[in-house]
Specification:
With 139 residues, the chain is an alpha/beta fold. The chain contains two helices and seven strands; from the N terminus they run αβββββββα. The longest helix has 19 residues, at 116-134.
Length: 139
């Protein structure tokens, strides 16, 4: 029975671990007269979508950062969104940029804080497994 409890705690721990990635995508195959854009959210974002000039470059990934290579020179608009209902407000960031040859630019994405519902659910999920240890079992 004790092995079951330990297994349950291990499964709960794995449920709350992060698997976010540093994503690298290529906007176009032509590399002449291009630059690089790095989008760095303040925390990892789930179901991340990124567009440049309404062209989808990232679709539904768990992102720690997004690097976009071969962005051509000129004016562009980047949209960064994350579909997470636990945020207090929706994450919808827009960045107008002007790319110059060989330039590398970084944009910081401010991620909204989690809502009260998220903290109630997370706290409940962390406390519930310990109830198995605290409740005495019948002999």
């Amino acid at each position: 029975m004790k092995n079951f409890h330990l297994g349950f705690l291990a499964a709960a721990f794995l449920l709350f671990t992060s698997c976010a990635k540093d994503l690298t995508v290529t906007y176009q195959m032509e590399s002449a007269n291009t630059g690089k854009v790095v989008l760095k959210p303040s925390t990892s974002t789930d179901r991340t979508m990124v567009t440049i000039n309404d062209q989808l470059v990232v679709d539904g990934k768990f992102a720690k950062s997004v690097t976009i290579l071969n962005v051509p020179n000129g004016d562009h608009v980047i949209h960064y969104t994350a579909d997470n209902s636990f945020y207090k407000t929706p994450l919808k960031a827009e960045f107008p940029i002007k790319m110059e040859n060989g330039k590398s630019m970084t944009k910081l994405v401010e991620v909204p804080p989690y809502s009260t519902g998220y903290w109630v659910l997370t706290t409940g999920a962390l406390i519930l497994p310990w109830m198995f240890f605290l409740v005495p079992s019948n002999p």
